[in-house]
Amino acid sequence: MKRLGVLLSVVALLVAGLPATAQAQPAPYKADRATKIDVMGEWAHPDDDTSIIGPCGVWHQRYGVKCGVIMVTRGEGGGNAVGTELGPDLGLRRENEDRVAHYRSGTVDIFNLDRIDFFYNQSAPLTQYFWDEEETLRRVTRVIRTTQPEIYIGFTPTLAAGHGNHQQAGRLIWEGVLAAADPTRFPEQLRGKDALSTWQVKKVFSGGSTAGTGGTTTAANCTTGFVPASADTVAGVWTGYDSPYKWPAGNVQGRPAGTAKSWQQVADEGRAAYPTQSRVMFKGTSVPACPKFAMTQAFVPFQPNSSPAAGRDDAILFGATKPDPGGLPVGTLQYLTFSRFANVAGEPFRATVHLRAPRGKLAKGNITLTVPPGWTTDGPKRVPGRADAAITFTVTPSTSAPVNQLAKISALYSTGKATGYTDNVVRIVSATEGRFQRWGNWQEYDEWLAQTAPQATRLGRSPAIQSIGVGRTLDVPVVVHNWSATPQSGNVSLALPANFTADATTKPYPTVAPGAETTVTFKVTNIDATLPATQNVDVPITTTYAGGTGSETLTLSVVPTTAIAQTTTAPAVDGTASDGEYPGQTLDLGRIWQGASTCTGIDDCGVSATGEGSTAKVSWSGDALYFFVHVRDDYQSYAVTPAECVGHWQADSVEILLDPRGTASQALMDTANTFKLGVFPFSNDAARGNGPCWSRDADNHQGYSSGALDTGNAPGVEVASTATWVGSNETTVPHTYTGYDLEVKIPLATLPAAVDPANLGLNITPYDNDDTSAAGTTTLRHIDQSTRLGWSALGSVQSDPYRWGRATMPGYTPPADRPTTPAPPDVSNPNLNGALSPQTIAQSARNHVPISGRVPTNDLKILYAGLRPGALDVLTHASAPGTARLFLTSGDLGAIPVYTTSCTTDPPPNYGLTPCAVTDGGIPPWAPDLSGRLVKQSSKQLTRGVQHWSVPLTAAQQTKLKTDGHLLLSYETPDDKVQAFDLKLSRRP
Ligand SMILES: [Ca+2]
Ligand SMILES: [Ca+2]
Ligand SMILES: [Ca+2]
Fold it and tell me: Which spans does this entry mark as compositional bias, Pro residues (predicted)?
């Protein structure tokens, strides 16, 4: 066998390290070509980021722009529709899917931050808790400072982002922009031999509105004539351009072989490249589109949509990676700030135009401010020939400026030869504003705006939201703020919906000084006898002052209430509600909160407006709750194996949700302070008679709770089910049934805290999945096509404890020694460490950005690496101890195909994403060797000094390494520093 040795001198050239920097007085750090990113996106989970596939392809091909993606998690908490990998193994697979999706667009730098993907929630604070907010921002900041992106794109930070991980990923955009530019943030990154420099991102696209009229999808420069509906400047890019990727012969779409695919085609094929997430191979023919991006912050001059140049497909790059058409040199900073964001009609404020030359001095000229009709300002004002300038104007809004709206102000910098345009917005508010006093996630969001990212306030503050139990009374505090320059007084009024009363509907507020506030509290009572058909009601709040009124609308969710009856004899958990076991109220579970379109009626999913559908009864006895749940259903779903007895929404199931203190939302812990038990009425587990199985999900301690995989997280829970599995997951076997009854005992000691018998949060939510087989197949699948019903049936209610029903337990007292504060949540599924991902190691070695944005080290040197018959020898020198992980790979790791195809003329770079038969789109084997790419792996604890490491190899493994063989090695020190190596062991054949 030929010996493939790598000489020391060659190693020195190939070993990747961070760019060398001077020791004493470091020059400003500048990203080199391998490292520099022009457009950075940031999202929470692989597959959140597909909106930039087409745009980045066009920008990369036509304008030489390089996109990158900061991916906060690898999505280990998601499902796996095509394999058995969970946790870190799933993260490895999802990382590859994301790389496949973006690869052909030239987006090969995906910066996984290795944060944990825990469970679906709607809480940014809970996400901060699990992600370690400061460490995550530290990593984001390092990636930004290292790659120096000009443009930053991603989710909105607002509560409208839904998933708390999405909200927090959006916040990290705003926080990352601020932190990267701030020398007081993470100053350790700015010192030492690997010192970075501060960095100013030039344009931000997070949370703006792309709504508007005009433009086209059928021609280049597709935003030409586009008029935004909002104050945001909107940039678009046409995806109808030819990509470099060709249609293979025999494609099912019938496109001529060898002709170019459009970038939209490439984007749609990429968007489908996530089979673990139930996506399937794209077999359609794409129609070109004009994806748009709304700018929410700019530090450089740009073209407003009223300018023809704003219609160009490279408009997003103006002032950032390309010179602005106005003619100012690229790198010129020009932006507008205000003395305050919330302003009052007729009352002046200050606007400041900031200018900085990229080098040398600013060209002399003047600045003109443009304000809305009826407003006044001073100027034009002179721009001096200095390196930078801050020029301040006084702006007075019209006395009739409309309130609760944004108003745009623009500044034009004119020199003899060039112009630079910028704009920004203020909000006109009523002189006195009465707002429902925010609590929980809404209060926390408004505080984030005020304290951390004031510029994001243009996206709007939090909505006014609260819940109230049927027949209960609620305090409604209204905070009256005087935004004006004169003292104000007046009244606050509530407009109550039907079946509500209050201690008063109008109350006066005392005189409030300018800038001060006072609180007026109403006691509001619901007088419904039963849960109303529509659970959400509006309560408009009007506040008067001298000369006008201010208003906002509170949305109240009406939730069901019950008193849980005590039984002296504990119910027998036998699947039958016997006499005396459930003397209390019957709870109606016949309302749908999600997936209504998949249910045909009461026999199908138990939906009923009259209480004849699915129902539940609850009792308490001793120190336990007992549930009898009656579910109507027409079709037995897929039966789960013990390993699949999680993710209850993917099969017929019932979830029981308990918030022991009734305060999980108030504590900013979402469902992490609760107990949620998903119960499957039957299973594919012969060892347990195919009987019920159960697990905890998205709560204080999620994981398996029954059978051989029981993690011990729900001791004492008992379940009886009347369902009998039909014995097959094939649709050729009849799956008809009429539903099932469940009886469940939950010892209260297994809840995360002592129950407050006056305020127990309770919901019961059946999930109905029926025939989930794919078209043309006969095998049921373990995927989510559920109709979701509940006692409290509000959208996403599974993650919103404050909108569950309210229960009391008359007569119950918890044991005195039971804690009233829940234990810290325990997430049982860990995430992947990037040092264990060959793709991540190869990327870090190539682009010099440390794995997961951690601190780099150069402690390890590879002195020699070479193959000999029977083994690979590696000689290393470590100047400090650490853990080395070695991966020997064969073939291209950049994008490992996720689908099978019969196209024979579909070689890379098309990556098997085109079908040549309707049966194409199968799933190639992934584990345990990355679809054959991973030849061997090994790890070693290294101590200080020179060490010899011999990795035994079979002849077959040696042969594989002759084809594009690489030695990838990651090194982690005990203080969490990282290093990455990529040594080529052979030439491509
Ligand atoms: Ca019973
Ligand atoms: Ca059904
Ligand atoms: Ca069903």
Answer: 812-827
